[in-house]
Amino acid sequence: MSRNTAIARIHAPARSAMQSGKAKGGGWMLTFAPAEARKLDPLTGWFGSGDTQSQLRLSFSSREAAEAFARANGIVYEVEDAPAVRHEMKPKSYAENFRYGRAENWTH
User: Fold this and answer.
1) What are 17-33's pLDDT values in tens digits?
2) DSSP 40-105
3) Of 16, 20, 52, 106, whose CA is between 20 and 30 Å from 6?
C-alpha cells in the first residue's frame, strides 16, 4: 500500500497563452491533489492549509519516467493522456487577399 494519502496526477501541461511555438513542449508533470481543504486564517484573512504536498510539481521528460518515479516511491497515481495535436496551419500571405480567381470574398 502507498504511504501517501493523496493521489498524484501525471499529465502533459498545457502551453501558456503567450507560447505559440513548439519549444519546451512534450514534457510531463506529476502533481498531487489537495489532501485537506483550505481554511481561512482569522488573523490575516488569507487562505491556507497544512498540506504541503499539493504545492509540489515535478517535471519529467517522458510519461514513462514520471510513472517509474511514482512506482519507485509508492505513489498512487492516475495518468491523463496528452491533448490531441492540432493539424498544421497553412501559412498565408497578405497577397492572397488580392489573388486573381479567388473563390471567397475579401474579409477586411
Assistant:
1) 776 666 666 789 999 98
2) E-TTT--EE-S--GGG-EEEESSHHHHHHHHHHTT--EEEPPPPPPPPPPPP--GGGGG-TT-SSP
3) 16
Cβ atoms of 100 and 93 closer than 8 Å: no
CB atoms within 10 A of CB 36: 12
Contact criterion met (CB below 8 Å) for 54 and 34 = yes
The set of cell numbers assigned to 32 is 498531487
In the CATH hierarchy, which top-level class contains the domain 1-15+23-35+53-82?
Answer: alpha beta
> Angle 13-38-27 (CA atoms, 0-180°, nearest 5)?
10
Q: What is the DSSP letter of 23?
A: T
- pLDDT at residue 61 is higher than 80: yes
Q: How much is the pTM?
A: 0.64
Non-local (6+) Cβ contacts of 33 within 8 A are 6, 7, 8, 9, 54
Q: How far is CA 32 from its chain centroid?
A: 13
